[in-house]
Amino acid sequence: MDSIKPLFTAVGSVTGGRNGHGGALDFVAVQKKKNAKGATVTCSVSIGPRDAGGFGIAVKLHVKDPTLPQAELEALAREAHEKICPYSHATRNNVPVELSVEGG
Fold first, then answer.
1. For residue 32, how many other CB atoms are within 10 A of its CB?
2. Is residue 75 part of a domain?
3. Domain with 25 in it
């Protein structure tokens, strides 16, 4: 995937989300009998010129939940991103996504 030089970045956060990655994270957690309802998912979407020409977007997802151990939250967030989240499915192999996790 081409990298971009960000010209503009939009940032949004949700705690205990019902849609997108927050909803996917909650879904995965419930399946594993964990509680991620207090997790905050922050998504930063940047747009800018691509190395190969034209414009592209890049995404950074940050998942934070101090009530879940780091390794546990990482596993939940990764599964939500790789298997459940509809936005992740729609952008996979088209948009670079950087996932970072901050557990307790």
1. 12
2. yes
3. 13-42+65-103
Which of these, 33, 84, 88, lies nearest to 96 by C-alpha position?
A: 88
Q: What is the predicted pLDDT for the residue at 16?
A: 80
DSSP string, 70-98: HHHHHHHHHHIIIII-HHHHHHTTTS-EE
49 lies in some domain: no
Is residue 4 assigned to a domain? no
72 within domain boundaries: yes
Listed in sequence order, the DSSP H helices in 5-56 are: 20-31
pLDDT of residue 22: 87
How many structural domains comprise the chain?
A: 1
Amino acid code (one letter) for 81: H
pLDDT of residue 57: 96
* Whole-structure pTM value: 0.91
Terminal Cα-to-Cα distance of the chain (whole angstroms): 33
